[in-house]
Write a structure and sequence with these properties.
mainly beta; Jelly Rolls; 8-stranded antiparallel β-sheet; 7-stranded antiparallel β-sheet; binds 2-acetamido-2-deoxy-beta-D-glucopyranose; signal
């Protein structure tokens, strides 16, 4: 028994040198290393509606809201920087999301994912020093990763065949890894692995799991043309999409819990 405990202690010590684990518990949300918050009025910490006893984040999406509506008032956002001074090139992010029984997917919307560099990285700029790998929900419980990467990235033909971007054009983001991810009325765990590419090479990796089942794996990713590392979590959720047909027709709520990052 003592030898087992010693071995366990040793294993934990060794692994903590090579990896870093950050756990986001909404009971301690005030101590999360966050910044750049917006639409804070649409989020609150509540008891898990499924009765686990956990504190979870409840997000409001008012009727008519979608991301490109001028003055959009739907959903919420903030960024999490969990790595301190560490330069992180490989990480997994997982969290759980609950869409209640009265949820309407409409055409889809954003969900959290990893990001690197500037928080303002978007479909409208060159993204030379930033990237993001947010998830999205889509019609009928579909899901996918929605990538912003450097617009001068040299993508592989395999990547271009997999993405939803027309002609692999960098005009907006790259949807990739899509399939049925979500049901309503139960907690669903989604996880992404991001291994950044070597600048100038097509050797990055993106892997996606839903409820521990692998949904996607691709090892010729180009996330960056420079050396930008993984900065943390872009917690962003809203409907859209840049046209009004992405808007939620009624006020709906989602819930989030159990954020966890591991680096390797
Ligand atoms: C793009 O990457 C491929 C594969 O590594 C390489 O053969 C090609 O020369 C690259 N093209 C440019 C413009 O860098």
């Amino acid at each position: 028994m003592k030898i087992f405990l010693l071995a366990l202690l040793l294993a934990v010590t060794i692994s903590s040198i090579e990896s870093l684990i950050w756990v986001g518990d909404f009971a301690n949300f005030a101590s999360w290393p966050i910044g750049n918050p917006y639409l804070t009025e649409n989020r609150e910490i509540v008891n898990d509606p499924k009765g686990s006893g956990q504190k979870v984040l409840k997000v409001k999406y008012p009727a008519g809201s979608y991301s490109s509506l001028p003055g959009n008032k739907g959903g919420t956002g903030f960024f999490v920087w969990p790595f301190g001074t560490n330069i992180i090139q490989h990480a997994t992010l997982e969290f759980e999301v609950l869409f209640p029984a009265d949820w309407d997917w409409v055409k889809g919307g954003k969900l959290p994912g990893l990001f690197g560099g500037r928080t303002s990285c978007s479909g409208g700029d060159m993204a030379l020093d930033c990237f993001s790998t947010r998830f999205m929900f889509g019609p009928n419980g579909g899901g996918y990763a929605y990538l912003y990467v450097s617009k001068v990235a040299n993508h592989s033909a395999e990547f271009c065949a997999l993405t939803t971007a027309p002609n692999c054009s960098p005009d907006w983001g790259y949807g990739i890894g899509g399939s049925k991810y979500f049901d309503k009325d139960r907690w669903i765990k989604i996880k992404q692995l991001v291994k950044l590419n070597t600048p100038g090479r097509q050797d990055g990796r993106l892997t996606i799991w839903v409820d521990n089942v692998q949904k996607f794996d691709f090892a010729k990713m180009v996330y960056r043309t420079g050396t930008v590392p993984i900065s943390g979590i872009a917690f962003e959720t809203f409907f859209g999409g840049n046209t009004a047909d992405w808007a939620t027709p009624k006020t709906v709520y989602s819930y989030f819990r159990n954020f966890r990052i591991e680096t390797f």
